[in-house]
Amino acid sequence: MSEKETKSPLIQQGETLYPTQVRTEKDRVTDLTVSQDQSLERSNDTANREIERLREQAKMLMEQADKVEFESQIRAKIRSADCGFRPVVNQPYFLYESEGKCMLSLISPNEWNGQPPFGHCLAKVVQLGDLTWEISERMTSP
Description:
Elements (H helix, E strand, L loop, with lengths): L2 H4 L24 H50 L11 E7 L2 E5 L14 E8 L5 E6 L4
């Protein structure tokens, strides 16, 4: 092949097939760019504060939802609990659970000599005047 045939007609003598240098325009700092940067920074700060406030609200709502769910579970367990007496309004009772069986008792976990015979105490409850149950204290898990 001759020298003319091997050279591409689109590539001139001395040119390469790939760029050897990158040219970019210098960033010019002007009053407008400084103002825009400051505005963006303030906007981001505002957005971050709003996100943090929403996270706090979500955390509070999740805690409230957990409390409502726990109280609902306790009320369901009270309905199915064994009770050797008729509950009195405004009298504190203690709800115990052992192996899936629940027991309502007048005796607190601290009043037992040793381990309570009914299992671990779930909550201190009080029957209200409308015969619903209020959970006055949530006990720790075993």
